[in-house]
Amino acid sequence: MLDFDFNPEERLLTCIFKGRLDTVLCNQLSTELESKFTSLTKNDNPGALLDFGLAFDLKEVTYISSSFIRLCVTGKKRVKDGAFSILNTDPFIMKTFKIAGLDEILQVK
Amino acid sequence: MAENLTEKANDILERAIYAAAEFQEFNQEQTNKVVEAVYRAALNARVKLAKMAVDETGIGIWEDKVWKNVIGTQLVYEDIRDQRTVGVINHDTVTGISEIAQPLGPIFAVTPVTNPTSTAIYKILICMKTRNPIIISAHRNAARSTGEAARICYEAALEAGAPEDCIQMIPAGSREFTQMVMAHPRVALILATGGTGLVKAAYSSGNPAIGVGPGNVPVFIDESADLPFAISSIIMSKTFDNGTVCASEQSVVVEEKIAPQIRDEFKRQNCYFLSPEEILKVQNIAVVKESMSMSPFIVGQSVETIAQKAGITVPKGTKILLAELKGVGKDYPLSVEILAPILAFYTAKDYHSAIKLCIDLNYLGGIGHSAGIYANDEHRIMEFSQLINAGRIVVNTPTSQGAVGGTFNMLSPSLTLGCGTGGKNITTENISVKHLINIQRVCRRKMNDRFFSIDKPKYLDENCSEADLRFEYHKNH
Computed over its alpha carbons, how large is the radius of gyration of chain A? Predict the structure, then answer.
């Protein structure tokens, strides 16, 4: 349900999500993301700001829950310089971010 | 302090907007599953919630509150169950227009102290059916029971797959905070049921609102009516939950020639006519004279309690206190809306005077709400109905149950009754799911042949008259 692709030159972590991102799954994803962040950051403090950019790729996502929207907001806040974006959304998911009023803040593309 | 409140309001609306975003992804089947789960849980809790509401508020009768909960759950559910509220809800092959239902977004719902749990459940059901998250603001004296109703519904909704935070409550008691949430730019619609002040606040908030306030329901008993049936029906309605339904009868108006029979019938059915001295005593405790509004201390109280507070003695088992009044307005405090088993009684010299009295009562704080008529003369029923400014004119029916719908007629069962522009509402209908969706219309090309058949330069010719253009428009059709 979640793969990672880290580009050390660009200092960009792309998180590739798949399927239906419902509330139950989002709780697991949150843990997976946190452990990935910890492995890539030099700061050992949990919740420390990330010194690399973050992109969520939703190309293979069919449904997102409000928990996933929260996950995106948390992700955006974690990135030190705010370099966060959401990629490859289908129109239905784009509309979901639009309704949540987050399409611009989260740079949904 | 204000900053904290702003943060709190932002947090509630942020949660609601995320829920709204997820909710709009639901299809009809998923939506129906949530609605059914909420309905089942709420109906199963009907007795517990009714008892809680009466314990907490001290208003009404728990057995009647159960019936209100049944109306707010089972009857509302049966009414909305098969309605389409997601995606394409209608397609007309003749006009080529398809209608698509879209949710509105977060709905801020204010619930009253008189019908706390039933109104909360009903609002939750219609919001879930339309995929709108709901934020409930309970009356401060009914926060516990309303909160419990909301909790039961929320747990059932989550279990059925509804988005997190699709049902939220705001803490009761802070008018400042309620108004802050009400005016929040992310609120899509306010669904306010309550007193005049609250409804006014809803309309002043800057957000779209359906605000339903007080009524002052007149009932005319015509000479063609079945009198014992009419009196029995009025008693059943006015005593229901000790008169707390805003559509309950407030005044009975009759012609002089049948007044003695009606008085006798009321007495025979255990109602009590107050003497002029007793009227003064009752009005002193029932109405706040300065504001000409009912006293909150008598709302939903029994006849015994009211008599005790007023310092009068009435026969044991009295169902309703009747006050014979000579006029309407500030000199006659009992002519205003009183949600308790107190009923004004008027005699008029003839039919037209009686109707005029009903109009006066209707305009004394109850414009657009409800009215009742008992008659077996269709002409009089229709004449009365056309003269009265009421969203619902119920015929040969108890107004409390009749206006709410679903039991004595085919009106949509609802605990929020639109009062039209007279009550500063956009609709006179019983509020239901159709008021909580935006309907998009997909309009396919269907040429207006009459318009396109006209030689267009004729419109530019000043000498071409309306008659010429009308002829051209209808030519060959």
Answer: 13
Domain that holds residue A60: 2-99
Whether A62 maps to a domain, the answer reads: yes
Coil, helix or strand for B475? coil
| Domain count within chain A | 1
Identify the CATH number of the domain in which residue A20 sits: 3.30.750.24
All domains of chain B in start order, with CATH: 2-213+431-438 (3.40.605.10), 217-411 (3.40.309.10)
| Nearest CA distance, B11 vs chain A (angstrom) | 12
List, for residues A24-34, the tens digit of each pLDDT value: 899 999 999 99
Check if B30 contacts A (Cβ < 8 Å).
Answer: no
Q: What pLDDT digit, counting tens, does each position of B107-155 carry?
A: 999 999 999 999 999 999 999 999 999 999 999 999 999 999 999 999 9
Nearest residue in chain A measured CA to CA from B132: A99
pLDDT digits (tens, 9 = 90+) for B80-94: 999 999 999 999 999
Assessment of whether the complete model's pTM goes beyond 0.90: yes
Indicate yes or no: CB of A66 within 8 angstroms of CB of B25.
no
- Out of B15, B20, B165, the one facing A99 most closely (by C-beta) is B20
List the single best residue of A20, A23, A99, A103 to mutate versus B (max B Cβ within 10 A): A99
- Cβ-Cβ contacts under 8 Å, A95 against chain B: 24
B16 chain-A contacts, CB cut-off 8 A: none
Which residue type sits at B228?
P
pLDDT class of B1 with cuts at 50, 70, 90 = low
Q: Do B21 and A63 touch (CB under 8 A)?
A: no
- Neighbour order of strands in the sheet with A12-21: A2-7, A12-21, A53-64, A84-87
Q: Is the predicted ipTM greater than 0.90, yes or no? A: no
Q: What is the DSSP string of A16-79?
A: EEEEEE-HHHHHHHHHHHHHHHHHH-S--STTPPBSSEEEEEEEEEEEE-HHHHHHHHHHHHHB
